[in-house]
Specification:
By secondary structure, the chain is mainly beta. It is built from six helices and 22 strands.
Length: about 375
């Protein structure tokens, strides 16, 4: 597209932080050490997990860049970055998580396909609007609410369909990937979610108070809080209002939940809906999977998170493999008590937890979250 291009090779990829654990070099997929996640409630940009499907797109002329909104709408149009920045800007803290987070741990039970993430394919961020493998982080994302953007083309707030039958909003990236046979990465969400201001879906151009960097979608990306990261499309090219779900690979042939009886020989992708909200979960980050510590008092720290804006009611820690449990302290901001579903809490963000436990010899420490 004019102003933003997808290179054919990786020679112009940006530099990355040296502490990242690289799971794939080309395309570049990496996560921070698990201990880095609990050093800060909001994940630093350089340590935020990197999830890519091809070479990182390049902006060659930001003045020519625009997003086309079309499909089952009466007033299709192109919006420039200036148009989007003129809309009200909001600040929202939200955790993003790759749907493949903890895949390394899953493979210990049964081999699964995909990038071998530990527990750090997750991160917490701040959105600005006017114990295993993890790939999740929290950040502050800045941009315009998608509900406000869609209102510009005549789709009212809280609309579940358009007059011409549109019920889903498809996001198409400049990014090209092999899973789409060289075509663009794409995903969709229901229109009712896109038009709900309380869902906080963004067209984001900032991350942690700074302009998005290339790895995280510069100049514009989608952020869908509480939903697996695969729906938060980066390097946005166009938005299509469509009648049915997006038919892209990552909506129809990946990120679906099947019972143990299904394998790659008998799978029928059409029998399951695409995964959207990520499940309640917790991970211990202060200890590795195999750690040698002296018996006695040991601090256990980590994160707990749930999709859909659901808060975390409790985090429990066990030092005997789940026979007995102690409740951990939960917090988001240091010095401020965390209360699930309270207005003072960030509903889209993870909760950090800590418990000091008595560790005997040769034991298994586990954590569980309840929402």
């Amino acid at each position: 597209m004019p102003g933003l291009t997808a290179p054919s090779d990786y020679s112009q990829d940006p530099p990355r932080h040296p502490c990242l654990r690289i799971n794939s070099k080309q395309p570049f997929n990496a996560e921070p050490p698990r201990s880095a996640l609990i050093n800060s409630y909001v994940t630093p940009v350089d340590l935020f997990y990197k999830r890519n499907h091809g070479p990182i797109p390049i902006v060659d002329d930001i003045e020519r860049y625009s997003v086309t909104i079309s499909g089952l709408v009466e007033d299709p149009r192109k919006l420039s970055m200036k148009d989007i920045r003129m809309l009200p800007k909001y600040d929202v803290t939200a955790t993003l998580q790759c749907a493949g987070n903890r895949r390394t741990a899953m493979s210990k039970t049964r081999k699964v396909k995909g990038v071998g993430w530990d527990v750090s394919a997750i991160g917490n961020g701040y959105m600005k609007l006017r114990k295993e493998g993890m790939e999740s982080c929290t950040a502050v994302w800045g941009g315009a609410k998608l509900a406000d953007v869609l209102a510009l083309i005549g789709i009212p707030k809280l609309a579940s369909s358009t007059k011409t039958g549109g019920r889903h909003v498809e996001f198409v990236s400049v990014d090209k990937c092999k899973e789409e046979n060289g075509g663009p990465y794409k995903a969709s969400i229901p229109l009712i979610q896109a038009t709900n201001p309380e869902a906080d879906v963004l067209l984001a151009y900032e991350m942690n108070g700074e302009t998005l960097n290339r790895d995280h979608g510069y100049p514009l990306r989608v952020v869908v809080p509480g939903v697996i990261g695969a729906r938060s499309v980066k390097w946005l090219d166009s938005i299509n209002i469509i009648a049915d779900e997006c038919q892209g690979f990552f909506m129809q042939k990946d990120y679906k939940m099947f019972p143990p009886s299904v394998d790659w020989d008998n799978i029928n992708w059409s029998t399951r809906r695409p995964q959207m909200d990520f499940p309640v979960q917790s991970a211990i980050c202060s200890l590795e999977d195999v750690n040698v510590v002296r018996p006695g008092k040991v601090p256990v720290r980590g994160y707990a998170v749930s999709g859909g804006g659901r808060g975390i009611e409790r985090v429990d820690v066990s030092v005997d493999g789940g026979k007995t449990w102690v409740e951990a302290t939960r917090y988001q901001k240091i010095g401020t008590p965390y209360i699930s579903d309270d207005a003072s809490s960030d509903k889209w963000a993870w909760v950090l937890f800590e418990a000091t436990v008595d560790v005997p010899n040769n034991t298994e420490i586990v954590a569980k979250a309840v929402c």
